[in-house]
Amino acid sequence: MNENALTAFLVLAETGSFQNAARTMGVSNASLSRYVGQAEDHTGLVLFHRSRNSSTLTRAGQEFLPIAQALREDLNRYATRVAGLRGTGPGTLLIGCGPLTTRTLILPALRSVRQVMPDLRFRILVSAYARPLDLLQAGKFDVFLGDLTYTPEAEDVEIIVMEKQQIQFVAHRDHEVHQRGPQIIAGIFDYPFASPHLHKHWKVTLIKSLGGDAEAVEKVKAQPHIECDDYNLLTGLLAEPDFIVGGMPDTFAELIRAKTIKPVSMKQSLAWNICAARKSQNTSDALELCWSEFAKYRAR
Asked: Hey, is 157 helix, strand or coil?
């Protein structure tokens, strides 16, 4: 049933007068009659007893009245929610991110955004995505935060390059590596190593840091011994003096303060290559607020 037909039925049922109902709707008597006819055609029911001076509901009209009132309430809720959606964006913000960003960038952004929008829901999808901008353009994320070594031609994508930070390697406090003094990357790989997925960019970086020869290629191909994009599992490996794990300092800060693990002293360093990306035309108050939080970490 179209909205004019629904409104005509409800107003006529309330006023009992075609003239008063037409005046209330701001239409002619002929238009009101046409709308009421549409309501009756749609339901297949005779809804009114018509007379020269008044119109009253038939028995079928009386039974249809609460149905029509419920429909009107649904339409009002629909209009209110759509208006809110236009103003603030979806009730759930979809964030795709790489494992290195969760505590360093995602967590502080969530805390700040929730102070302003406490009812906003977040869905955080964590993985070492191979082609994240393709997923962004397909609508899988509202915003992506991670390594963007693969960048397709996408004029409608806005990108913020984040300030580089050093990757930290850690191990149990009793791990042998702490007795060997400052390490180069090759020394890290002398022990069982665990990390998120090492995609092409990271493998190339590590191969170069190991000298770039065939031996370096084979050594990097064998890494990591345990691969997981969930840092809860990776930090769990640090309960024993076995694995070395790589990540961002914020990820390990609590365990370091508790003195259960120690940073590995390094001669060489690696820095992340993290960017934030969103579709330029896909925005909302929630996304703008989240984007402004990420922009605080923009490379100087």
From this structure: strand
pTM, 2 dp: 0.64
Stretch (H or E) spanning 227? strand 226-227
Task: Count CB neighbours of 132 within 10 A.
Answer: 25
Cβ partners under 8 Å of residue 13, min gap 6 = 48, 57, 61, 65, 68
Angle at 130 between CA 218 and CA 221, to 5 degrees: 5
Round to whole Å and give the CA distance between 249 and 268: 16
Do strands 274-279 and 226-227 pair parallel, antiparallel, or not at all (unpaired)? unpaired
Contacts 24+ apart (CB under 8 A), 177-180: 177/244, 177/264, 178/262, 178/264, 178/265
Do residues 273 and 149 make contact, with C-beta atoms less than 8 angstroms apart?
Answer: yes
First-residue to last-residue Cα distance in the chain: 58
Q: Count other C-beta atoms under 10 Å from residue 220's C-beta.
A: 21
Average pLDDT, the chain: 89
What percentage of the chain exceeds 90 in pLDDT?
61
Domains of the chain: 3-87 (1.10.10.10), 90-164+273-295 (3.40.190.10), 168-263 (3.40.190.10)
CA 51, CA 49: separation in Å to the nearest integer?
Answer: 7
